[in-house]
Amino acid sequence: MQIKPILVPSPFGGEGAGGDGNCQAMMTHLSRPLTLLLSVLFVLFFSARSYASEKNKPATPAAPAQPAFSEVVIMGVGDILPDPSWGKFNISVDKLFKNVTEKLFEASLVIGNLESPLTGKKQPAAAGPHREDNKAAAGLRDAGFSVLTIANNHVMDLKAEGLLETIAGLKQAGLKYSGAGANIADASLPAEAEANGLKVLVISASDIVPAGSEAAADKPGVRSMKDAAQLVEQVKKTRAANPRALIVMSLHWGVEAAYTPTGRQKDTAHKLIDAGADLIVGHHPHRLQGVELYKGKPIFYSIGNFQFDCKSPGNESIIAKVVYRDGKFEPAAISLLPVFIDSGGIPEILGADAPMRGAIIKKMDGMNKAFGTMMKGEELLPRPDSEADEVPEDFTPIGE
Question: In the Cβ-directed half-sphere of 13, how many Cα atoms lie within 13 Å?
Answer without folding.
Answer: 6
